[in-house]
Amino acid sequence: MSDLVASVTTPGVLVAILAMALVTYLCRVSGYFAMSLLPFTPRLRQALAALPGSIIAATVLPLVERLGPAAGIALAAALASMLIRRNEILALVVGLAVAVAARSWGP
């Protein structure tokens, strides 16, 4: 444990951590600054409203493609549960249960 503390407190490591924290902060602040320069037109509002869905699709669909049909079936079941009941925890449980069942019955 003392070796870990000693390695983290070396000047190079501390500078790297502070640099990464600064870059992360600047990335977040620059988004707010950039958006303050744009007028909020109806088209921009529509684009911003579509972002969460497209981000989820860009994150989840490659996983479904890589993990196979069981993941796709589980995702469809979780989505159906969410649309019917509007409960995130229930959708998570349904998706996991269907994934386990699909993997146990599949090849």
How would you describe this structure in keywords?
107 residues, 88% helix, 0% strand
Number of strands: 0
Approximate shape: flat
What is the strand content? under 5%
pLDDT averaged over residues: 88
H and E order? HHHHH
The count of helical stretches stands at: 5
Kindly state the percentage of residues in helix.
over 70%
What oligomeric state do these chains adopt? single chain
Structure classification: mainly alpha
Number of domains: 2
What's the gyration radius in Å? 22 Å
Measured between the Cα atoms of the first and last residue, the distance is 45 Å
Largest sheet: none
Low-confidence stretches: none
Task: Report what the structure shows.
There is one protein chain. The protein is mainly α. It has 2 domains: 1-38; 42-107, no CATH class. Helix content is 88%, strand content 0%. It has helices at residues 2-8, 11-36, 42-67, 69-85, 88-105. Helix 3 (42-67) crosses helix 4. It is flat and about 55 Å long. It starts with a helix and ends with a helix. The model has no long low-confidence stretch (mean pLDDT 88).
